[in-house]
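Format notes (please read before filing issues)

Several people have asked whether sequences and structure tokens are stored in separate files. They are not. Every record keeps both together, in the order shown below: the sequence lines, then the token lines. Line labels are part of the format and must not be stripped during preprocessing.
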Amino acid sequence: MMESRNRKVNATVQPRRARRAESAPRESEAHIQAAILRAWGAHPRLRIARINTGVGWFNDNGPCRKTDPGARMVRFNPPGTADIVGLIAPSGRMLMIECKDERGQQRDDQRTMGRVVAMFGGLYILARSVDDVDRALATVGVTR
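Then the structure lines:
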């Protein structure tokens, strides 16, 4: 038994896996939207608002579940409508700002909406930060 205590064990030691460098947490789309509204919401040449797109269910008493008696579907804005919509003064040019986090991808209906807005002379911005909005609006002469 003494021999087993003194015997070397032939085992390989696996090094600990290196931890991934601590990085800043990803900024959510909601945080990006809020930052843009804070930065640009009171600008004298812009009128912007955060809007939702989708459907809701209503009956004669107001909002309800789709299974409630008398429920009817109400669509909020066309599919692909951007997160922030507004106007640029004094021309009244339409402005749409679609917010995405660093990994976010536009859906097909959002890309289509961007093309339609541009075709009609509006400004469509895909924004991952306030800086993206700053740069795009500067191209049309609007700065903070």
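For reference, the curators noted about this record: The domain at 27-138 is CATH 3.40.1350.10 (Trna Endonuclease; Chain: A, domain 1). The first strand starts at residue 46 and ends at 50.
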